[in-house]
Amino acid sequence: MAIGVWISLFAYFALMIAIGLYAMRTSTSTSEDYMLGGRTLSPQVAALSAGASDMSGWLLLGLPGAMFVSGLGSAWIGIGLFVGAFFNWLLVAPRLREQTVHYGNAITIPAFLANRFPTRAMSLRTVSAIVIVVFFAVYTASGLVAGGKLFESAFADVINIGSLSDYAAGVIITLGVVLAYTVVGGFLAVSMTDFVQGCIMMLALVIMPAVVIFGEGGGGFSQASQTLNEVDPTLLSWTDGLTFIGWLSAVTWGLGYFGQPHIIVRFMAIRSLKDVPVARNIGMSWMLISLIGAVSLGIFGRAYAIRNGMNIEDPETIFIVLANLLFHPLITGFLYAALLAAIMSTISSQLLVASSSLTEDFYRLFLRKEATEKETVAVGRISVVLVGLVAAVIASDPDSQVLGLVSNAWAGFGAAFGPLIILSLTWNRMTGAGAVAGLVVGTAVVAAWIALGWSGWLYEIVPGFI
Prior knowledge:
The protein is an all-alpha fold. It contains 18 helices and no strands.
């Protein structure tokens, strides 16, 4: 592996850790500092942090891979997510920022629900915290699997750590860097690194499709379109071969946004209510550019592969293959850093939200109600490490199919918390009993739908959300 790639990657790792050390010195003295950054996020940091922690490796691997295989029909997922994210910023963000302060200055979603519905405080706090910790352990593991597979495919036989495989070494390196800046710097470090990672991701998704389309061997839009039409005309159609149920399953991914704790917690941390519209505009612009880039990379990457006689065994590796083929090693290293940024930004956010629930909704609630701020921060750091280690164990088997659970976890969170959050913020007649019922039934319907094998017919978030 060219030294230029390693130079870029080490520079990226060093920057992430430096941000963590900076955040440790400025915003980790209290539990609110460590878990919410003292509610001081600027609109640009809040916007890109929400976007980067949301998209994960799906943006650079999953979506381009789906576009590579089935063409524009797969873009409906991205459209659904864009619409869902917009309404999340419009409906949830301002209300959650205001009401979490109003209801006891809550710093976790379970604490907000408990304060909002005091007659069912204990059951709401306990059940929602359990759902968060369990789902995020699996969700985090899926990110570590993606990190392990990146190192396994991009650095085969280059990383030598004792008897560890390239995959295992990749999992360890990914988790190690994430823990380094998350443990020491808390929420502010996670949000600031997310901002940097979001910028890197967007830049990569502008550079690579442009080179694929207009660079040597690309042929421009007309040549690429002609190539795709010759192979399969449906690749450039939004509707050919798409049933109504298939379309509905794709666009309803956007419903999941309302219930993702690692995303909506950014709304709680933005520095003021008046900053929310600015953050929304920045976040939606970032998301639009990034989604267009990912869609273009997948579909025009297939045209490039056909025109140049390339055999792509795994469509989800098109980003990695083209990064190796088309760029100078320093730029290739930057593009790998973009992929790691997508993975790490989500892992760090999920680790911190799970840690916050363990600390505030278990430790402080059941074990040490009078815990000092210093003690709470220490427990938060220990919890980050513990959740990370559990996730690493789950991710230790590269064939564990944990990546397949991402869509299930997204639906589970969306159905369990989505309607509950929306109604809690907008409907005064919402009751504690209704909140508990919604939380339990939403989760149960999603679980039952998956267990019955009906997910292939209709995405489980639809019945779960209803």
